[in-house]
Design goal:
Largest sheet: 5 strands, mixed
Strand content: 5-15%
Number of strands: 10
CATH topology: Cytochrome p450
Number of helices: 18
Radius of gyration: 21 Å
Shape: globular
Order of helices and strands: HHHEEHEHHHEHHHHHHHHHEEEEHHEE
Bound molecules: protoporphyrin IX containing FE
Distance between the termini: 51 Å
Helix content: 40-55%
Structural class: alpha+beta
CATH architecture: Orthogonal Bundle
CATH superfamily: Cytochrome P450
Length: 413
């Protein structure tokens, strides 16, 4: 990542901004809200990228794909020398497919992938997702206390995505590990010490997906790989099929884990909120939208400028890395009055940017919403007396991408 020439904002807090400081990670909103007042677009000296926090500016970036390319959005480091023979084409999720291409190529690939992610396809999975949620609750319901992240919010989406992609149950644990490492690899500040381990996971993932693709070609099943293979040659190359599956793994696990964890934290931190969900589970869809806004599962994602440009009143040079902070835009006072207040009855509930906007709008949004809805419904039905364990220390990963608690201890009577 190259450093860019820039002018200080004249706001000391922004000029000294440390996005991975634990206190900031725990509550980033005061700083982001002051950025929106003082400098909605500013250079983060400590990280070497530009932060875009204003709602209007985030929309400008997501819609201007000519100036703000997604080509480098997964920001990979080069494949380590010892893995080059196993990854001759690079990392599997790095082959140009969805999140790392621009229109018009992206539009063609997205049309081909869309059919595998329609709301109709998601609806067919509802009984399966409900069963997975109930099976997980069975594993801890007798205990009276659980870290709900480790025992529910993490395994639920991994099992769902594994089934959607067409992974055998015995590979779930590997899939979990590959998914976590793939997600880490999309972090441009990945420490070098983690690179070799993550890159080895990517070699294993690529080899696993290649083997499954070969099997599905012989014998198609009811899964994503088979759906995508039906377009092979016509619109999708096999590398793109593997890449879409890998990006689904990255895009669909940690994000959904964080949504479920954030929802429980927001609801249980005021017991009246949880009681009202238990009493009226039909309100869960609105509750989920407001959780997505007030405590977004994705902090931000990346673009690169193709040319020098002006954004939010500042000049950004060509080839600059731009952090599009969706979570900050969701607290923009000019769009959401009293942005820190959890209010599922807001008039513009669905205006949040948690699933992005424009060409790259999250392909998995219907699935994520369904998983979170089922998760809350089953917990409310089976554990209506859920409560937060008092005085627990909440920590968040040092990531510019994800926003979710590392663990969340709950009890019930
Ligand atoms: C709460 C859960 C989720 C959140 C907050 C979320 C967030 C996002 C965001 C913000 C984007 C836009 C990326 C950009 O503009 O660069 C995106 C794209 C994407 N998401 Fe999700 N996502 C979630 C769940 C899922 C699920 C369940 C899947 C898989 C089924 C998924 C797969 C993807 C893929 C493949 C893309 C790239 C789409 C494209 O570039 O055309 N996501 N997601």
């Amino acid at each position: 990542m190259e450093l860019s020439p820039h002018r200080p904002t004249l706001c000391p807090a922004l000029d000294a901004y440390q996005p991975f400081d634990p206190a900031h990670l725990a509550d980033p909103y005061p700083l982001w809200e002051s950025a929106q007042r003082e400098a909605p677009v500013f250079y983060v000296e400590s990280a070497g990228f530009w932060a875009v926090t204003g709602y209007r500016e985030v929309l400008q970036v997501t819609h201007d794909t000519d100036t703000f390319t997604s080509r480098d959005s997964l920001n990979f480091k080069p494949v380590p020398a010892q893995l080059r023979s196993r990854l001759p084409l690079g990392f599997p999720q790095g082959y140009p497919s969805l999140i790392n291409t621009d229109p018009p190529d992206h539009s063609r690939l997205r049309r081909a992938a869309n059919q595998a992610f329609t709301p109709g396809k998601v609806n067919l999975r509802v009984p399966e997702i409900t069963q997975i949620a109930d099976d997980l609750i069975d594993t801890f319901i007798a205990r009276g206390r659980v870290d709900i992240v480790a025992h529910f919010a993490v395994p639920l989406p991994v099992r769902v995505i594994s089934r959607i992609i067409g992974v055998e149950p015995h590979a779930y644990a590997d899939f979990q590990r590959w998914s976590d490492d793939a997600f880490l690899m999309s972090n441009p500040v990945l420490p070098d010490a983690d690179l070799l381990r993550c890159a080895t996971s990517m070699a294993e993932l690529a080899e696993y997906l290649q083997a499954r693709v070969a099997e599905r070609r012989e014998e198609p099943g009811d899964d994503l790989l088979s759906d995508l293979l039906s377009k092979e040659g016509e619109t999708l190359a096999v590398e793109q099929i593997i890449s879409i599956a890998a990006q689904t793994l990255i895009g669909g696990n940690v994000t959904t884990t964080d949504l479920i964890g954030n929802a429980l934290l927001v609801l249980l931190s005021d017991p009246a909120r949880w009681d009202s969900v238990v009493a009226a589970p039909d309100t869960i869809p609105q509750v989920i939208e407001e959780v997505l806004r007030v405590k977004s599962a994705v902090r931000g994602l990346f673009r690169t400028t193709t040319r020098a440009t002006e954004l939010g009143g500042v000049q950004i040079p060509a080839r600059a890395t731009v952090w599009v902070v969706f979570a900050a835009a969701n607290h923009d006072l000019s769009v959401f009055p009293r942005p820190g207040v959890f209010d599922p009855d807001r008039a513009n509930l669905n205006s949040h940017l948690s699933f992005g906007r424009g060409a790259h709008f999250c392909i998995g949004a219907p699935l994520a919403r369904a998983e979170a809805k089922i998760a809350l419904e089953r917990l409310a039905a089976r554990l209506p007396g859920l409560a937060l364990v008092e005085q627990q220390q909440l920590t968040y990963p040092a990531s510019p991408i994800s926003q979710g608690v590392d663990r969340l201890e709950l009890t019930w009577n």
